[in-house]
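Long-time lurker, first post. I've been practising inverse folding by hand and with some scripts of my own, and I keep getting stuck on stretches where the structure tokens seem ambiguous. Below is the full token string for one chain I'm working on. Before anyone asks, I'm not after the true native sequence, just a reasonable design that respects the backbone. If someone could post their per-position residues I'd love to compare against what I wrote down in my notebook.
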């Protein structure tokens, strides 16, 4: 069992405030201080310090935080596995990004939830940054993301590799003939919100060409993919999206891919979980199931 003082430490890491941590844990602030002091004496290192009156983690505190998150996560998963032995159904908590939610993989997610009807399911759709934070806070067990993440903190398995393409609505007229990414400069660009994996990947592409949002006529930041699709259909601008997220619209001719000679980008959709988990076999089996279902769906499509 993980020492209760470690849980106090993790709560202080979340709130970065001793008073708020004591309120969440329903203990006194002196108790919180005592718990942190005990850990500091145990490891012989200061875990927190103050910089301009703001509480911050020391390098030792950062190291303990990473280890403690992993240990707490393992303990919770172990308890849930024990519950399953008593046929209680157990619990599953996970998240997917908004782009994954718009892709063909969504059907596999629904199938996964249906197999867990006897247990509790907690399912979130959010951007990559928020889902990574949920895993750090142990709110979810795993996530399926298309954005970048720290491979030093998380293990992963690639489920698919998806084309990332520039698109316009059928009625949108480009301002000039387009052959390269640079030719799109001057267009109205629709982008996702901060923390979105799609946005991070687009920014990396632009940076690699010494471009920025400032090279475009104007920027619209939208945090909802359905709203972005509506704006595209209304001819309000262009955007960059995963082809799998707009597969139907491309087939129906509502959206048109903008072909570029110097842009051929694919990115991984990955199942991600905290690094060095003793339950790695569970996540590997889950990834195999997703891959199998996806291949089966692809073969079915070919037969049709």
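-- Answer (accepted) --
I ran through it position by position. Result:
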């Amino acid at each position: 069992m993980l020492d209760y003082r470690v849980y106090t430490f993790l709560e202080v890491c979340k709130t970065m405030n001793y008073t708020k941590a004591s309120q969440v844990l329903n203990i006194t602030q002196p108790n919180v201080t005592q718990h942190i002091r005990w850990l500091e004496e145990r490891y012989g290192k200061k875990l927190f310090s103050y910089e301009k009156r703001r509480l911050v983690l020391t390098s030792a505190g950062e190291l303990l935080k990473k280890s403690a998150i992993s240990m707490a996560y393992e303990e919770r998963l172990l308890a849930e596995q024990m519950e399953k032995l008593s046929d209680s159904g157990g619990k599953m908590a996970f998240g997917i990004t908004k782009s994954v939610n718009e892709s063909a993989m969504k059907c596999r997610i629904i199938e996964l939830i249906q197999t867990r009807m006897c247990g509790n399911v907690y399912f979130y759709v959010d951007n990559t940054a928020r889902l990574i934070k949920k895993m750090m806070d142990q709110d979810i067990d795993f996530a399926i993301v298309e954005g970048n993440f720290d491979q030093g903190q998380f293990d992963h398995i690639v489920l698919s590799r998806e084309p990332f393409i520039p698109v316009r609505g059928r009625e949108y007229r480009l301002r000039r003939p387009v052959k390269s990414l640079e030719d799109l400069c001057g267009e109205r660009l629709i982008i996702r919100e901060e923390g979105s994996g799609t946005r991070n990947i687009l920014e990396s592409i632009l940076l690699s060409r010494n471009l920025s949002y400032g090279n475009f006529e104007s920027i619209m930041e939208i945090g909802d993919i359905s709203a972005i699709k509506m704006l595209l259909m209304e001819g309000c601008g262009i955007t960059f999206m995963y082809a799998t997220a707009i597969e139907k619209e491309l087939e129906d001719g509502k959206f048109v891919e903008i072909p570029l000679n110097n842009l051929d980008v694919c990115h991984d959709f990955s199942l991600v979980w905290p690094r060095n988990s003793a339950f790695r076999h569970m996540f590997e089996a889950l990834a195999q199931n997703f891959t199998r279902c996806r291949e089966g769906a692809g073969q079915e499509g070919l037969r049709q």
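A couple of notes from the structure itself: The CA atoms of residues 211 and 226 lie 27 Å apart. The mean pLDDT is 85. Happy to go over any region you disagree with.
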